[in-house]
Amino acid sequence: MEISDQEILELIKTDANAGFKLLLKQYQQPVYFHIRQMLYNHDDTDDVTQNVFIKVYKNIANFKGESKLFTWIYRIATNEALNFLQQKARKNNIPYEDVAYEMSQNLEADVHYDGDEIMLKLEKAVAQLPEKQRLVFQMKYFEEMKYQDIAEITNTSVGSLKASYHHAVKKVEEFLLPD
């Protein structure tokens, strides 16, 4: 049984621990998957996911309800993952634009990766996209989010997202299809 965001928020007001446990039960796995699509590594994803929920816990009282709870949490998750990628690029002294691709090259070695050869090829193709196209593609294709939700998470217009997704699909097709 899925509980509504409103019910979770109400429970947090009356019993913070029980409410937050429900929030974790509902969002921890999808947030992990969202971050995993960006970072390609289980251990890094685990760390960033923990940071996301620490931030959510510390800031839930400031949530005004102007957006959906899920888009608010995903915005935090997206920002934390992007910050992690920036730090990784600086630490490894590689251009930020290349860090996702570099991380995707280790997918086969990750014991937690269970994709087949085709999925691996798709992941590597997506990792080569520019950041905005990669984000939109991951949220639309892998997570099947609506453009409106992606727009709230990324603070971008729906029209711009549709254009980015279209360009991303074309680039992925070029990468995957033989000459």
TrEMBL record:
One of the protein's GO biological processes: DNA-templated transcription initiation
Domain RNA polymerase sigma factor 70 region 4 type: 121-171
SUPFAM superfamilies in the record: Sigma2 domain of RNA polymerase sigma factors, Sigma3 and sigma4 domains of RNA polymerase sigma factors
Coiled-coil intervals, chain numbering: none
GO molecular function per UniProt: DNA binding; sigma factor activity
Domain RNA polymerase sigma-70 region stretches: 23-90
Pfam families attached to this UniProt entry: Sigma70_r2, Sigma70_r4_2
Domain of life: Bacteria
Keywords associated with the record: DNA-binding, Sigma factor, Transcription, Transcription regulation
Protein family: Belongs to the sigma-70 factor family. ECF subfamily.
Name of the protein described by the UniProt record: RNA polymerase sigma factor
Organism, scientific name: Profundicola chukchiensis
